[in-house]
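From the shared-data thread, chain only:
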Amino acid sequence: MTTAAAVAGNGGKTTAVLDTYGKPLKTGQNYYIVPTSGKATGGGFTWKRLPKWPKYPKYYVEQLKQRTNFGDPINFDTINPSKSSTIISISSNIKVNFSTLAVQKYGNSNWEVVRSGSDGAKWVVEIGVVRPKILSHIKFTIERHNKEVGYMIKHCSSDLVCGGIGLVYDYYVGQILGVNATYPMAVVFEPGLFFTGETFNKSTSDT
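Structure, as tokens:
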């Protein structure tokens, strides 16, 4: 396996986003988002159901505490379907989805940036929003991190809502993923070859 440093080093020679093995990220494949930032103590990411939404479940994205736990797998789709290439490039517009079954059951596993319900000044990542999708709210890019080893996932739906994805505090649910232009999280992408038993059990029991 290549290290995060090797991935970042190779990034200067190609426009493709590379996984931890040095291979280009591709649409339709599973990956684990693994933080490399010193400020991001903890493991990968998982989805968790928001309280008080029984009929149309909504979810937020939280970071796991165990550094050895990569969380739930995600996959990427390109925004522009006319492109024949399946390779994810730096700064290309993409959608981010959890690959876990329970979220897909509701027909909507896209990450979407919305205004925080507890603090209107923050913009957080949610999943399962029932209203029709606004393209600018589900559009992300992957960029090289300018301060740390690895990449950052970035969202820009306007001049006011633009920055790398990192941890933000929500009054109701605590630390979750959102737009954090000051401290964007540095990450690498670990290929996910199959669902683990732990992931499958979590996915089917949280409904």
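Residues 124 and 178 are 4 Å apart (CA to CA).
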